[in-house]
Fold these 3 entries.
Entry 1:
Amino acid sequence: MLASDFGGILPWTKYTSAVALTFACLIALLARSLSVGCPGEIRLQPQAFALTGLLLVLLAAATLQTVPLTSRLVAWLSPASYSASVNWAGRILPVDLSQSLTISIAPFDSRHAIANLSIAVLVSFVAVLVFHHRGRTTWLLSAIALGACSVALIGLGRKLFPQFHLWSFRSGGEGAPFGTFLNRNNAALAINLGIASALGLIVYRGSALSHQGDAGESAERTGRKTFGSLWLRDGVLLTALVSLCVTLVGLIGCGSRGGLLSMLVAGTATVVLTRGNRVRLAGVVAAIAVVVLTVVVLLRTGTIGTETLREDTFQQIGSTVTRGSDRLSTDTRLSHWPDGFRTAIEHFPGGSGLASYGYAYLPWQQTSPWRHCLHADNLWLEMFVELGLAGLLLTALAAVLMVLCLRRLYASTDPLDQGIGISGCYLCVVIAVSQTFDFGLILPANLLAVVMLLSVVVARASTVVLAASGRENATPGTSGQPKLKLLPQDAWWRSPRFLQERVFQIACAAGLLVIAVFAINRLRFDNLVDFAVRTADAEFQYHRTDQPWLDRFAAETRTLAGQHPHPDLLDVLTRIDFQRGRLLELTLMNAGRIPQTQQAALYAATSRGRRRLGWRAADPVLSKHVTDAGVPVSPMPVSPPLRSPDSPYALALQSAEASLRQRPLAMPPRIDQVYLEFIHRSPERTKAAIRQSAALFPNTPELQLRFGALAANHGDYETAVQAWRRAATLDDHMIPRVLGRSRRFPDFPVEELVTSPRDSIPH
């Protein structure tokens, strides 16, 4: 889990982690099939797999969003998804309403998320089979606690020893990277998972050593003993105590306000909700508090390490509680949430599709900041937008399930149940609070750890059953109150239900393994796409005029796109084919036989921004007001070979159109429609593409300036006025730039920038 998110959340890390986890699950299932009659095996009730069932329902709901449905059904289930395909993309590309549509407005992104979720479902199911054993449960909690310690230690090491660059992924920047995570909020959630595990271990071992423990464990029959005689000699307990101290220091040093807030709320809630717990930890808590505070003071004063903790670590926390501070009130995520709720209502009840939030909210912006919000910074709001009614119901069912399970564990007399109950209580509150201000739970490492921990909570709770009545359990000298008992842990394979239960487990495991295989194949293709995209970004600028390299890379990319037409890959293919078309056009012009100065001028005239202007200048109807930022443009008609269906320019247009159909609210394929106007020869399409792009990013001044320039170059001054006036309204510093650009066009109506009351962009 630690390695799966090492240095970033990338397709290749998800792919390799999925392969490793699936292989590990297969080994565990084979071992499980050979474990009949082994000591410690217990009969697992169907309720033990309740969490897996919820995840399967989530998986099914998300998959349904990517299945093509009739346009009428999509319009009823998700009106905004229908609008994205018909009213937005449909104004640029022809849409046949008799064809099927998907609820998801980004189906390839949704299928990628579904593939990752499929692995989590498999892990959840196998975790129930593996970690119901007492010893393996202890090892799971210990492993997660130690993993969180490694994140905390690496993060603190990067802060205290900045000259050590092994884990320095980038120096500073937004998110203040911490540990193996590029964002401190994600790291804080991972550390909180370690705190939950450490608390569970402390309560488990402390309860076992302080009170009459489980009758099946001879080490726990000693009853009450002093702290010094037993607690300091218990390896698991010492590991948990050290882990708790390290993770608490790491969480403070991390500086995540959401992480600290969730820790404080979860700690308080856990103490209040489990105040009747039988283990006395007042002394332990006091000792841990003293150790943690001492270490923090030493780190702050520079006693440990070559440098002190950076000022921003404490300023980030102090600004939240300092009187007169306005950091929270001006937090961009708070101003964005109203748009998120508006988006959820527009997509209700079917949602917009898993992992599509970054596109879904764009048409409904009113209060969002300038930035492109790929996530809502609120996982519950994001689920509401992407899954709609299904997201609300599944969240409510998960909450009810965890409350019921934690109540059972709280009432159990087994020390292990008490420890798991404490861990589960802390974990659930941490998730509820932290994910209101973040989305770190969707990260594979955090998701897998949470899935395993909660699977253990549910499975363990399913083994605790209430007695039928108080009278049956009343014995002389007792109050007659109903007690709890655990399911028998003897030779359960002799039960008549053995075959039924084993067949159920094998069938479910086989089905989940098949799903995991398909998921791995999807992640493999996504990994290849990401590799191609990154290769193009890194090498394209060095091979712009290398015709053999461009042809070879285009052929390889087109082959991959034929197998897996991912929008990102199609966007790269559009760019590569456009460049191939430029070189072909220069060849047809015999550019190699003219002076080098003229060659450079021709090469510049065929650029993405200017080629369409030369085509417009050559058209008698469209040539009016055509300039390049006020500079006259020479006519450049398009020769017939460049318009043939198999020409590079035509192939680039096909890729751009396919990308727009896959992501009807994306900006790159829209701008490609503008650049390729000389191929599709539809000025109305160009006008719609520019206006829609401006409407989708209405709060980004730089983009408004750019869109206005695109429109002004071909004389669409109405669109340019609206975009530039919007840019000046958003940012006062844009006013000189807007006026400077507008004055480059001799006939531009500059006065309308001031007098026009309209600042919105129609789409």
Entry 2:
Amino acid sequence: MDFLTNIAFFRIFMIVKMAAVFFIQLMLFERRHRGRWTDETNRKWEALVKKQAAEYRQTALRLEGLLIKLGQFLSTRADVMPKAFLEELEDLIDRVPAVQWKEAKAVMETEWSGPFETILAHIDEQPVASASIGQVYKATLHSGENVAVKVQRPDIDRIIAVDFKAVRIVMSLAGRFTKFGRQTDLPALYREMTAVIGAELDFRSELANGRYFKKRYEQFDEVDVPDYNSEISTKRVLVMEWIEGARITDLNFLEQNGIDRHTLAERLTTIFLEQLLQEGRFHADPHPGNILVRADGTIVLIDFGMVGMLPAADATYIRAMIEGILMEDYTKVVDGLEGLQFLLPHADKVRLKRVIQAMVDAYTSQSFTKMDDLAVGQLLEEIQLIVKQEPVQLPAGFAFLGRAFSTFIGLLHILDPNIDLMKVGRQPVLNWLEQHAGKTTPQTVLLQSLRPLLSLPQKLSSALDEPVRHREQQDAHREKAEMERYLLKNRRDALLFTALTFPTVPAALWTEQTALLYGGPALFILSIVFYWRSIRAHRRFLQK
């Protein structure tokens, strides 16, 4: 990190300037290619995104701090980020520059109020891992026990605080100029980020989280968590048991030790869902560097700096959504989304319920391959309309769950590219539902038997409503076409008016008549304003 990057004003300027340039580039590209998206346009779009990602990566590696953490977050969001962007940022997890040994040594001796030799018999001066908040060294205690010592980067708390000021400015710009900003509760997301990353800066929080998960998995034979030494751990230095193991994505290690990748992926899925569903406290940063595997196949979870919480009320809504899908009661699904605060106040719940039903029906019956092009096109068109009209948002509390989930899915597909997530995850979810629904009773058995009949009225209602929906859709298309014809007519008339009034401008230079001298240019200016407004009205219509 050079001298300038320690200056608060310079950091804020660099971060805000980069974001502003990105926003302007994306807005100009969208306006330039609106309505004309071709293969060539897509190629140019990917080139632009790749260029932006490369610039972000270079800036993040120079400034470090929060940009590294945000880059790692973005690199896992395959659901919202273009592939070209992900490819540029994926190595931010592994290639964070390490600080010099003398700086890390100074942090340890400040925290321990004396030479590190009073605590450690030996420590390797070369770190085994380097991250955005701290780096890890292998050491030995005077008792002979091998330990991992995590040391916080010097001055990182001040750097993160400065970066958050810049991020707050960027979020304000995003809320005003981007669709993502309008679909997300950015102030709440900012508060969530400061809380989670602020806790990550205090290693005592990670210590408490690690001891919690150690106790939680002590009865699991195939899962392990390192012991933490609370006596010599501090706010900026964390000491834990040293565990030998390879990254879980080290496929050569798995093959050499005869570890079945599909079985390993199934066990990982059970662990993740158990964290999420049973108690709601989950590892929010499950990237490959934080999950190890021993030669005997034992999974080792490490680094609990980022831990998310799922409130009990949210678990209730999630259960209601699952039951709604199983019972084909899509009103309950939409109500669950609303309870989780995924829906904006103006959301069209009827349309949303219809789209969810169509998607679930298509998936469960595998009917996407059997539907004709018109039916598929209508379904996709309705989904696109819902997204454009912004009926949904990403609640701040789910931002880190989404990050954890997308990171975890990417890890599973490395282990087993052909994994069926629905099949693997079904049993843990059913176990959770059974546990929360109570023990099986005759009434429960009867309810399960009658489930197809209970959903029959909704299917009949849906069938009866189909002609109405079809007519509504036709009316909407007709109204849209009529409105576009009207706007195009206005645009054509405005252009004609501009062409007719243009000759009055040079004519005014050669006449002495007051009416023509002033009236001609005035009419021409009015015609230009009229034409410009008609263009804007048409563009706004196309954006809806």
Entry 3:
Amino acid sequence: MSRSYSEVMGAPNELYHWIPGELVVVVRLSRLPADEALESLLEQVRTRLNTFLSPYQLALEPYGTAGRWKGSPTMPPVRRRSFIFGLHRKQPLLAIFFHARHMDPGVADATPMVLSYLQARLDLLAQQGLQIVSAMPNWLVTAAPFYFSEGGPALPPRPAPQLEAPAPSNALIGWRMRLMEPDIPLDTRSAEDVLVAILDSAPHPDRIMSAATRPEFRRNWLLQKLASDLRNEDGAFSVEYDRYPLTNEVRTGRDYYNDARYYNMADHGLAVTGLVRDVAPRARIRLIRVLNDFGGGDLYPLFAALCDLGREMVAGSIRRLVINLSLTIMPDVRRLPYVWLDQRQWPTTQLYGVTRLLEHVEAGLRLLFESLHAHGALIIAAAGNDSVASRQQNAAPRPPRAPARYDSVLSVSSVNSQGQASMFANAANIAPADTGVATFGGDGYGVADGNTFPDAVRGLYIASTFPNGDHNDIGWADWCGTSFSTAIASGLGAHLMAQGWSAANSMIRLAARGDGRGEPPFGAEPEIPSLLGNMIRVQQRFGL
């Protein structure tokens, strides 16, 4: 490991799972409002909520006017404070972002108190005509130095092995993925009729095209392919780099010892994109930047991007859509009660109130994904990489994180090159659900494959140096994590969607192990029992 390792990776100093003082309220509307009436509607909701909260010395302020935005000129302006979804319903849903403030300036984070009082009197608010279906903090979509939670790849990217292949000196070579499952049908047109939206970190398009001209990267077939797609501007590949405002306060990552460390990972989304392109060579790919260069974010850009995609589906501009989410949100379902209810001193401490509260602090997310699924989107998400400590204690892996654990989402866990559960991999399912699957995602530090190379997924990497300080001279990195398993599953999902499979049937097909004939009536055990999921076999080889 390079001596500069500690200099290029940082350590967070505080732990949070949401942005302090920020929340999202999801209300049910009687009808779809006109665009020009939306701001007036938002103010009406805020006024009604503030009237209710004022006896408790609490208040809500318009998003983007307080909190992180006060006295910080680097914060991007907020032009939209709400997002409409659930357009398949007779009564659509509106997610509104707010700042929460306590009149006592000594209260640093008023969000839990606001949510608790709201959730305790949903009936009263409903009697006043305000139907709140969910109220939740602005959950982190990974981690940060000031705002930090679990997330990120299982390991920092490392230089991939340099191999020689018998080929002309000007031939394009590199790592390629091969499906080993003969019963998963591949589209004869390589999924050209499908859009794969990848919500992730992203390098600027100019940086991708510039990297493709570097002499040491000119033979990297995958980088050259993506750069060519960008230059052609024909929709084969595009990057929405600055459509949604981001802040660099939120950061994520782990070191080789699974301790919290952050590092620049703008290429994480590029590696995911490359794997999708490898598996589905002609699919249209849209890389949407919702995570910053340190792999962190919050619900605001995620809601914005997903709601915009939903509107495109309703308008008919997107016919077949796969959404790749190589990210995780909020603590896992087993940790959530301890995180959210720690040192509570406000109402709804009874069991029924606690149960309802815990459902309410994520119901808005669940409804958002159900809405996209209802519109026909195939949503594929990473189960997460939180299970190293559990493995070391010979315990079961952690459950899949949100959104992977939702019924409307295909959860993807990770196995190594030998088909065994990766040491970091969260379970693919929470029993009795069966909407999860596992595929190749590498393994922990020090684990080797059959060729004595590190057991890892080889993906694109265009930064000049790696987090450990090593120089990058081939454009390939060893990545490990369920993020990269998810990309492989998304590519295969695009093949199924291109052949007319519905999102629901595609989920079943990818998660199933066969046609079920010859199995007991109650079913068969999963191929990877510890992950509660079956396996999609793939193989990565170096060559032309």
